[in-house]
Amino acid sequence: MHTFRKLALVTSLALAGIAAHAGEISDTTIISNGTVNTATGFLATARQNIGVAEDNGKIKNSTITANGLTNTAAGFLSTAEQNVGRATQNGQIVNSTITANGLVNTASGFLSTARQEVGFAKDNGRVENSLVQANGAVNTASGFLSTATQQIGGASGNGVLRNSTVIATGAVNTAGGFLSTATQSIGVAK
Predict the structure, then answer these.
(1) In 3D, which of 102, 108, 114 has the Cα closest to residue 47?
(2) Is 83 contained in some domain?
(3) pLDDT in tens, the chain (190 residues)
(4) Number of domains making up the chain
(5) Containing domain of residue 49, as a range?
(6) What is the pTM of this model?
(7) Does 11 reside within a domain?
(8) Is residue 124 in a domain?
(9) Quick check: 174 and 146 in contact, CB under 8 A?
């Protein structure tokens, strides 16, 4: 009996640990203005996440607003990742409003990668009954073999975009340098 109680306690703690990793944003308002994130130097990485639900991610009945965000990685093998209202690993954005104005994401250096996602659901992603609006979103990667990826208002991995409005005004995505690649996706289901 005593062994059973210990086993039950260990099992419940393990399940609580697993549940703690499941991301969900529900019935919530998130506002971020003028947030700055910077990494500089050898192998620098800068990740800026505003209103992001990861593993088994869900954003439901929520409002996420971001204005004047800056994310920068500078140096050898830099990576800059800026996410506003993103849900991954079976991601869902449902009955929500995601608004971003004046976002700047920059990676510079050898093999730089700049990735910017606004209102994007991944891995069987679904965006339904939602508004995604990004005005003046700028994503830039510069350096040898640099990659710039910008995704606004969409879903990937058997993605579904349904009953939603996606507005991207003045979105700029640039990769500069030898063998560079730039990919921009706005209002996509892939």
Answers:
(1) 114
(2) yes
(3) 444 344 333 333 333 333 345 789 999 999 999 999 999 999 999 999 999 999 899 999 999 999 999 999 999 999 999 999 999 999 999 999 999 999 999 999 999 999 999 999 999 999 999 999 999 999 999 999 999 999 999 999 999 999 999 999 999 999 999 999 999 999 999 9
(4) 1
(5) 22-186
(6) 0.88
(7) no
(8) yes
(9) no
